[in-house]
Each structure stands twice: as C-alpha cells, then as structure tokens.
Model the fold of this input.
Amino acid sequence: MNNLDMARSYLRQAEERLIHASEAIQRGNYAYAVRQCQEAVELSLKAALRIVGIEPPKWHDVGPALRRERMRFPENFRERIDILASYSRRLRRERELSMYGDEETGTPPEELYTRFDAEDALNIAQQVYSACRSLLEEI
Done:
C-alpha cells in the first residue's frame, strides 16, 4: 500500500468518525462526539502528510510536523496550515478528557462537555477534513 492509498483510507476513517460524531450530538453524547472529532482531525491531518510523501509521526497532534513541512504542500493548503495546526493542538488537549473525564477532580466526561462544545468540535473537524479531502483531490 502506498502513501496515497493510506491517505484515502485515513480520510475514509475520518469521514466515518464525523458521521458518528454527528449522531452522538443528536443523542446528547457530547463527550463521545468530541472524541470522534479529535480522531477525525488526527486522521485527516495524517492523511495530508502522507499525500505529500511524509510519514506521519506516531503522536496525536501532528500540527508541528505540518508547520515544519509546510513548503511541501500546495499554496492553497499551505495558507491554512497555521489554523489546521491550531485545531489539531486544541482538540488533542481534549483526547483523554473526552474519554476518561478529569480523573484529578473525579469529573466524568459527560459532565465536561456541552452541546456547544460538541458542535464546535464537529465544525472544526469538518473544516479540517474538507481541507485535507481537497488536498487529495488536487494532487
């Protein structure tokens, strides 16, 4: 399997997570929606790296790798890297909290997130997915 095949697979997986996030919001499971959005952003951005021939790092926030390798991307994607990296960092911070809650304070994930949080995360994830999908179509 080559980088473009892997990128397509990552984007399919990201799209599936967006579907699950949207469904979770409708059911009121906001923490799960945030978690799915974080995963969709991670997969989308790792796909973007693969599209330009870069092996993605094995950690969850790939924003620094995007910024380091910005010149490998087409201009229209390059212009969005700072915001995409910011979104990656922002949702990365929610990864464990949205799954396990705040263990320090004993707050479960269901008490940490509201519909607003979930819809905001979904909006971010859709923007990132769309940018990465467009990058694949451009290449």
In short: Residues 3-138 form a domain with the Four Helix Bundle (Hemerythrin (Met), subunit A) fold (CATH 1.20.120.330). The radius of gyration is 15 Å. The longest helix spans residues 3-27.
